[in-house]
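2024-03-11 09:14:02 DEBUG pipeline.ingest accepted 1 chain
2024-03-11 09:14:02 DEBUG pipeline.ingest length=412
2024-03-11 09:14:03 DEBUG pipeline.predict start
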Amino acid sequence: MTSTLGIDLGSSIRSAAIRELDPLAADKLCFDMRRQNEDADVPALVSALRSLVPTLDDVAGYSPEECVAAMRDLGMFLGSIKKHGPEPVPFVPEVTPVLLELGRRTDMVPRDTVHHYTTWNPTGGRQRMYCGDIQEAYLQESVRMVFPHLREGLELAGILSDMDVDDPKFGVLTDELTGHVETMVSSIDMVVANVSPVFFARGLRAYFEEITVDGRVLLGPAAAQVPLWLIDQAVWASDRSEPGYQEFLRDSVPYSLPRWRELYEHWTAVPSVVSRLVAAYGDDPEETERRVPALRASSEALARLLRVIVVFRGRHLGIARKAYDADLRLYPVGSGGASVDLLRRITDLTRATARLTGRRSAGAAAASTEDSGARASGCAHASAGASGCAHASAGAAADAAAGAERAERRSA
């Protein structure tokens, strides 16, 4: 998973190395920033940012990993100043060429992203935090814990996107992908248990506001930059989405790692996995499964994956409804630009896709059951037992979709 840099800044080894780096000698200033934010001390924040800005000659001597660490620390002050009202760059104009060069050197946007705020952020006493509240630490950890799994999951999605849906390995790899995606559910459970909607909506959200760099409006380090949407794109959204979600994806892509941008471009140009599965079943699913038995395992595995995604989407929607309630919110949309209504529509689209996938295997299996029962007419009890077992198996994929819907309703 490399980029035009020839290295993978998102790998576990490089991420750990970046967390240790402090090229701007910013440790103390970043710690002091918490108090300055509490006091809304914009002059102190501006002074600190100005003292941290390196020269372009300094940047020329940085490794790519040091460029990431420098962007991380500059970004914390940019977001802090914007939280308290003013656009930050005009206060320290000399930061503009540095941000542009750091972005060029790392092949990323010229400001900090969710990767800088979480994965590339030190832990322990050196952790960069806007507030220093334990709830902020939980929010950072909830994102940090999923990135290694999503990174592996995206590579698996790349394999599945190029693999025939009737390949016997398709179901196995899809279940492996599901295991990685399940960490998203654990992550959202951590947020529900440890981060109050009031803290996020009225305490932390404002630090993730957009800023303008060299005439370009750039979003802050939003959770929307966590690329579950990219797995959506491979599995179903490339050709089964809706205009609002497509626009949201296009707006989110620039904040991704270079390799993930490549995957998005590729998956946007090819049929989704779900569409290929539907096409493989054709107009006569039961006959297709007789000829290609491996399709049953593929469709059931895909239904299991979609069920996990729907459960996550439902819990995320429940949090968003609370954080962006009209009586609580300070902003009408999330820091990534998504409204609660868009999140609801995405959840509905995912649920509908799960139902579609479940019906394929369920319908074919039910037809197979009826055929087997007719051939076994000489033994009524045996026929009844076989029919019951087969219908239970046939409903497994459909139950996955229905179970996801129930879980979504409970969580929302």
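2024-03-11 09:14:41 DEBUG pipeline.report Residues 364-412 have pLDDT under 50 and may be disordered.
2024-03-11 09:14:41 DEBUG pipeline.predict end
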